[in-house]
Amino acid sequence: MRNKAGAVVGRMSRGQNIVSGLPRTSDKPGTEPQLLAREQLILLSQFLNSISNLVNPGFKQYRKKGSALNAAYAYNFEQAFVFEEDKVILNYPAIVYSRGHVKGALVPSVTLEEGMAIFKWQEQQESNFCRFSDQASFLLVAADTGKAAIFQNVTRRDACGFTVALPAKLKNTALHAYMNFSSADGKLVGNSRYVGPY
Q1: 97 band by pLDDT with thresholds 50, 70 and 90
Q2: Residues 158, 161, 163, 166: is their CA dihedral positive or negative?
Q3: 13 or 70: whose pLDDT is higher?
Q4: With pLDDT > 70 as the criterion, what percentage of the chain qualifies?
Q5: Which regions of the chain does DSSP assign to beta strands (E)?
Q6: What is the pLDDT of residues 41-70, one digit of tens each?
Q7: Homologous superfamily of the 32-197 domain (CATH)
Q8: Residue with more model confidence, 190 or 83
């Protein structure tokens, strides 16, 4: 049975057939905690969905029955928000879009010069989870709008730097910057790291 049949609805959920009653909407206004929870849900979900190209490989090993996005949401929720006066906003420095064993960058930094974002990090010795061939990915987020630009697997670890022209949507605004490494074959990922505001 699929879709609506009388007073029940049939659907598939996580590979199982589910039959449930018709959903009912409530006329009661939400309580303050409920409204806050909804606002937090929307803020974090929208951001993670906008960078799903990084989140999907970054959290795929942590998904259980749900999606990588759900796993990232659950991991980030507790530290993902700060309050400014009566407003809740995303705590960008605390958000993680990737988790894994590939070693992170050594002393990473980012600077802006003439419309270019310049990432740098120090050279590292090779080991099981630190290869010269590891691929670096970068994320830039506009602090005021939340608009993001992704630069995925664009250079090797041993390049020790990456320079990119800022897209128009990220110009003339404060930025949040992140980076992470993944193995050359894409099977392993490392923790994303907040490089800093600029």
Answers
A1: very high
A2: positive
A3: 70
A4: 89
A5: 3-5, 8-13, 16-21, 81-84, 87-90, 106-113, 116-122, 135-142, 148-156, 161-165, 175-182, 193-197
A6: 999 999 999 999 999 999 999 988 889 999
A7: Immunoglobulins (2.60.40.10)
A8: 190
pLDDT of residue 4: 60
Q: What is the pLDDT of residue 115?
A: 92
Helix (H, G, I), strand (E, B) or coil at 169: helix
Residues 18 and 163: their CA atoms lie apart, in Å, by: 51
**β-strand pairing of 116-122 with 135-142:** unpaired
**Cα gap 194→159, rounded to integer Å:** 19
Q: Which long-range contacts (CB under 8 A, 24 or more apart) does 142-147 make?
A: 142/169, 142/170, 142/173, 142/174, 142/175, 143/92, 143/173, 143/174, 143/175, 143/176, 143/197, 144/173, 144/174, 145/169, 145/173, 146/46, 146/47, 146/50, 146/90, 147/50
Length of the chain counted residue by residue: 198
Query: Dihedral (C-alpha) 99, 103, 107, 111: value to the nearest 10 degrees?
Result: -60
pLDDT digits (tens, 9 = 90+) for 62-79: 988 889 999 999 999 999
Tokens of 25: 């909407």
Cα distance between residue 53 and residue 138, in whole Å: 11
SS3 164: strand
- What is the sign, positive or negative, of the torsion defined by CA atoms of 36, 42, 47, 51? positive
